[in-house]
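QA checklist item 7 of 12: single-chain prediction sanity check.
[x] sequence parsed
[x] length recorded as 202
[x] structure emitted
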Amino acid sequence: MPLLARARLIGAACCCAVLFLLAGAGCQSTGGGARQNPKLPASGSAASLRPGDTLVIALQGVPDPSSNQVQIDDQGLISLPFIGVVKASGVTTANLSQQIRDTYVAKKIYTTVDVSVSVTERYVYVGGEVGRPGRVVWTSDLTLTKAVQAAGGFSLYAREKGVNLVRDGQSHVIDAHLALKKPSEDPLLLPGDSLQVPKSAF
């Protein structure tokens, strides 16, 4: 085979090899799935009472009507006069009203009593590398990024890709950069959720 033809053949083979490698690299770069934040576990509806909620419980239609402000503790319990500890988390205000009414009657404290339960403002907690760490008033459309903005935004030293969200004692690491770019990756918060923004190593 002439030398020139042989050189052309080798050159063509090299070009094919390069194109094959580039094609393979392209397949690898597009084959991975899109980044996603972890899906948070279901924790009842937002209407359900949760630890940290502050309640006003009014007793009417009795000789000694009263109104008590109580907070649901970490175990989901409240304490009321004469009947003691009552499980309050995980139910609605209507359910809790009925439960308290039935308990007062069953213990023969009252023969009949009207009970109303209302919730004061509910909160989430934002700490760490934000402008104003502390409580943020919860609303039904409050997301992670909205809560951070309400707390003064990220500080210059915040590690925004590693926000720690604690719900019901379980920790979940959320990428706030991704949440800002894709609203579908910006998790809705529930009352009592806690956010901790860590400090960047750089």
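[x] summary fact logged: The two ends are 62 Å apart (CA to CA).
[ ] second reviewer sign-off
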